[in-house]
Design goal:
Elements (H helix, E strand, L loop, with lengths): L1 H27 L4 E17 L2 E16 L18 H30 L1 E11 L4 H5 L6 E5 L2 E2 L4 H9 L5 E7 L2 E7 L2 E3 L4 E3 L2 E8 L3 H27 L10 H14 L1 H19 L7 H14 L5 H33 L1
Antiparallel strand pairs: 1-2, 3-10, 4-5, 4-6, 6-7, 8-9
Helix pairs in contact: 1-2, 1-6, 1-7, 2-5, 2-7, 2-8, 5-7, 6-7
């Protein structure tokens, strides 16, 4: 139940922000917006405010902003979408992905500031049974002060140093009360995690950054994630990386795990998903915003709009292929999780 609820909330926020981008820019240009909807199918709730109908629908798997004239039914009304200047229509479409990037930035700032980042301390909280650290005599409450002569000031350095010295006996110095003790430990390889471990879990403390540092961190993470996304896409297209895409089921499972792990992980995952939604949407695939931007570019070059019927056919074919793609990745997810189970 938590997984389903978390997925509906996270996905709902991402879609609401995306459609809000289209909506706000369209309204700023005085375009006619007939409806702002979250979800598809029969309406659960709707309310008309001015010339726009605001609705929440029963299927929480998307949303839309319906602009007057966008379906190809043109009139002479200068406020309708097809009759607006090309640059205004371009900005209306582009605003959806941009809003998701803005949302990602906001979520990263919230995670780093008000929510706080769980950060490892240098104090051992738990020892894993039958692992080398327990066998060597380490105890919960011991504070690690050095590993092979390297002073430890931050808990994040411990796993790095263990990995660097994984194939040899590690000398770990700890403070137990006022007494300094030394232990010699040989890490053990964990086949399931595919890494060497000594079997210690460090304590955590929550670090809240100030406004300026949270904003800097949010910008850095959003920009870095965007760059990584394009690098991954390039590697996929050039065959340097195998195709491995997570579908709706996999994302829902990941969101559920993040919700159980805590607010930091859920908010951060929401930011990551928002970046991915923004960038995926600018791909020139029919139905996605990217294809609409591409067709607007073609219109700018040709100096005339594409035939509405032809454009509608392109989007209809694209929708069919997109649905088949979703079915494929969903099947892949189900098989994957059944295999793990």
């Amino acid at each position: 139940m938590l997984t389903i609820l978390a997925w509906i909330v996270v996905f709902g926020v991402l879609v609401a922000a995306h459609e809000l981008g289209h909506y706000l820019v369209a309204k700023s240009f005085s375009m006619r917006v007939d409806e702002y909807s979250l979800g598809f199918g029969p309406s659960l709730f709707s309310h008309a405010f001015g010339e726009t109908l605001y609705s929440v629908r029963i299927i929480p798997l998307g949303g839309y902003v319906r602009l007057r004239g966008m379906d190809g039914q043109k009139s002479e009304d200068p406020r309708e979408y097809p009759n607006r200047p090309l640059w205004q229509r371009f900005l209306v479409i582009f605003a959806g992905p941009v809003m998701n990037l803005v949302l990602a930035l906001v979520l990263f700032v919230i995670a780093l500031g008000p929510v706080g980042t769980p950060t490892a301390t240098t104090t051992i909280q738990h020892l894993i049974a039958h692992y080398p650290a327990q066998a060597a005599g380490l105890k919960p409450g011991d504070r690690i002060v050095a590993i092979d002569g390297h002073a430890i000031r931050h808990g994040s350095a411990i796993s790095t140093l263990v990995a660097q010295h994984a194939h040899q006996v590690i000398r770990i110095a700890v403070m137990r009360g006022h007494q300094r003790l030394q232990f010699f430990i040989h890490p053990r390889y964990d086949k399931s995690l595919k890494q060497y471990l000594v079997g210690i879990e460090m304590g955590l403390r929550v670090v809240h950054l100030g406004v300026v540092n949270s904003l800097k961190g949010g910008v850095t993470q959003t920009v870095g994630l965007t760059g990584a996304w394009f690098k991954a896409l390039y590697a996929l297209v050039t065959g340097q990386h195998r195709f491995d895409l997570m579908g709706p089921v996999g994302i829902a499972v990941t969101v559920g795990r993040a919700a159980r792990a805590g607010w930091y992980w859920l908010v951060t995952l929401g930011a990551v998903l928002s970046v991915n939604l923004a960038l995926f949407n600018i791909l020139p695939v029919p139905v996605l915003d990217g294809s609409k931007l591409f067709l607007l570019g073609v219109e700018g070059v040709r100096r005339r709009a594409m035939n509405p019927e032809r454009e509608g056919m392109i989007h209809m074919v694209g929708m069919a292929f997109l649905l088949l793609f979703v079915i494929f990745v969903t099947y892949h997810d189900i098989v994957h999780y059944l295999h793990l189970g």
